[in-house]
Design brief:
This protein is α+β, with helices and mostly antiparallel strands. The protein contains 14 helices and 21 strands. Strands 14, 15, 16, 17, 18, 19, 20 and 21 form an 8-stranded antiparallel β-sheet that branches. A 5-stranded antiparallel β-sheet has the order 7-8-12-10-11. Strand 1 and strand 2 form a beta hairpin. Helix 7 packs across helix 14 and helix 8 packs antiparallel against helix 11. 50% of the residues are buried.
Amino acid sequence: MNEKNTATDGTPSSGGTTVTPEETAALSLRLAGDVFLPGEPGYAEHTAGFDRSVVHRPALVVVPENADDVATAVRFAAGLGLGVAVQNTGHGASVPADGDALYLATGRMTGVRIDPEQRTARLEAGVLWEDVIPAAAEHGLAPLNGSAPFVGAVSYTLGGGVGVLSRQHGFAADHVHRIEVVTADGEPRVATEDENPDLYWALRGGKGNFGAVTAIEVGLVELTRVYGGGLWFPAESTRAALHRYRTWAAEMPDEMSSSFFMLDWPDVDGVPAELRGRFALHLRLCYLGTPEEGERLIRPLREVAPTLLDTVTDMPYTEVGTIHNDPPTPGSYHINTFQLRTFDEDVVEAVLSLVGPGTHSVVGLELRQLGGALARPPKTPNAVAHVPAPFQVYAAGVLGTGADDEVLAAQAKVVATFAPWYSGTRMLNFMAGIAHTDPAYVREAYTADAYERLVALKTAWDPANAFRYNHNIPPAHTA
């Protein structure tokens, strides 16, 4: 018999739910995929995501092979009063799945189907962008992927999705045509502009709050190459390069995306020899027009000072991940992210005071230019906040190295230093790890009207908050 620890308000407590061997065996017989219980081989493997600051200890893990498996698992969870956690790569992990959770690890659902005539792609829940980019490139097309190709395509898109094409083409969520989802009652449904339109609106930006998405159909853009790469400036040129970048970025067309990242680069394998053990400013650039025009546009940056490295070149879109060159190594991270209402001289000086040369900061800091199509309403409305904030802050520190207190103190200083320019808004996809789990932070990823509508739809579609192991939008009666 199933036994459950329950709090006085009816919400499952952290004590966990005992799923009996008989119940597990019965579930396993109905699945094409696998089931793992705590302590069994495969349990730890499937619950260990990219960001390991969030540790999952669910009652059981289900590894579905297809959408039918997902529906079966969600119905099983509903029958036992379990919540449902859904994860692919774990880049955007937030609330840990506890003993009252059935954990869906979607990594085996890797179907990609390109329709070159319609310029669309159907992506199953476990697909990575590195699976989609070359498949689309065979037809002269490109998806609106993020800067790291090894991120899950579906969860990234449902959270909004910002990459090097976004200033020109908008959020990835703006280009979703169709969503296949299993809702909290275990029913497979389709959400489009015409079918379940409220669910369609909410899932595009509301991410995993309204069901387990098994596949999406997204639009692709005609693109085969970009002019992009990085400029690395040494410590002594950092102030001049940042001030030049500030005025330069304000004049750029939507076809140009840019960001910068600053830190003391470690002396480890994988870091270019020119950077190891020294401070450097990394400007990341991507232009969607001709190489000749791209070279002309970035010339003022190249003229600031000699660079340690200059990798900006004409490249096939299949190499787009080399622009940001994000590290693919899992680890335990502390992330802070929010948007700024301006990027002026004082903000540049604030950046330098936090992570500039000589600070030896234990966090790295990125500022990413927004604007363009990210600030304009999409053709088909969705829950993503299209706000006018021109730049986004992303600060990251590594936990578990013996310097956790220093990392947390540095992150608190980042928040306090940027407070005068904080826009009051955040992007859901960047709110990863342990720092942004409270619904009060999640609320800042939406406009007030959108959040009110999301709560109403959450109350209608998932009144028991079964899908709560996420950046949660609680139903009205539990808010």
